[in-house]
Amino acid sequence: MKKLIDSFNCAIEGLVYAVRTQRNMRIHMIATLLVLTACFFYDLSKGELLIILITITMVITAELINTAIEFAIDATTNYYHPLVKIAKNVAAGAVLVTAINAFAVGYIIFWKKLQDINLIVIKKIKNSDPYMIFIILFIVCIVTLVIKAIYGEGTPLKGGMPSGHSAISFSIATTIALITEDTVPIILSYFLATIVAQSRVDSKVHSVKEVVAGALLGVILTIVLFNIFG
């Protein structure tokens, strides 16, 4: 019994370590919390819930295996080797495949359920004046600068909480999503916004937390302002 309990403790310790040290694992966990929270607000069938749970498990498992492979390779190899690079890339590719599958599952299950709400919001926004879009973007910029000033980190155009580039890019993507019913432009808009946010992390100007905060600020503030002024 003690060995069984110890094995569970080791497994949990590994999971906690991955969440604490791996950026992508934290992103997966945040996405998991958001999806599971959304499940409470929609009338999902048992089959849909099962598919969502399996999909979440696949993504997290793939990330854990990817992390284990990276640490195992780093522990045994202290020099560059092309096969090591291939092994890490293949493991990362497995995570990417499961993440794309998770996105597709989420789109299939949740999009139709959100369609009625989306149509109401879109109709209201389409009846608003075009110049409201620029006013809303201006407000998003001002709010971002105010929050940066409160935190006292970085400069207005570089660094600090939240990421201004992330906030503006996701605000624009949300605006496009609200004024069009075509799925392709919406997906491409958020894809480009994600690339902008990722570039701020890769350039080490912002942390993941600052980028995520900027994205949430841009999305939420844009939706709220459109509903107020639209």
Short description:
The chain is built from eight helices and no strands. With 230 residues, the chain is mainly alpha-helical.
Note down, in words, how this protein is organized.
- The chain is an all-alpha fold.
- Helices cover 83% and strands 0% of the residues.
- The protein is built from eight helices and no strands.
- α2 packs antiparallel against α3 and α6 runs antiparallel to α7.
- The chain is globular and about 65 Å long.
- The termini are far apart.
- The mean pLDDT is 81.
Task: Give a topology summary.
Elements: H1 2-21, H2 23-39, H3 46-76, H4 82-126, H5 131-151, H6 164-179, H7 183-202, H8 208-229
Helix pairs in contact: 1-2, 2-3, 3-4, 5-6, 5-8, 6-7, 6-8, 7-8
Query: On the 0-100 scale, what is the average pLDDT?
Result: 81
Shape descriptor reads globular
- Measure the end-to-end span: 63 Å
Major sheet characteristics: none
% residues in beta strands: under 5%
- Rg: 21 Å
Figure out the total of helices. Answer: 8
Low-confidence stretches: none
Provide the descriptors you would attach to this structure in a database record.
mainly alpha, 8 helices
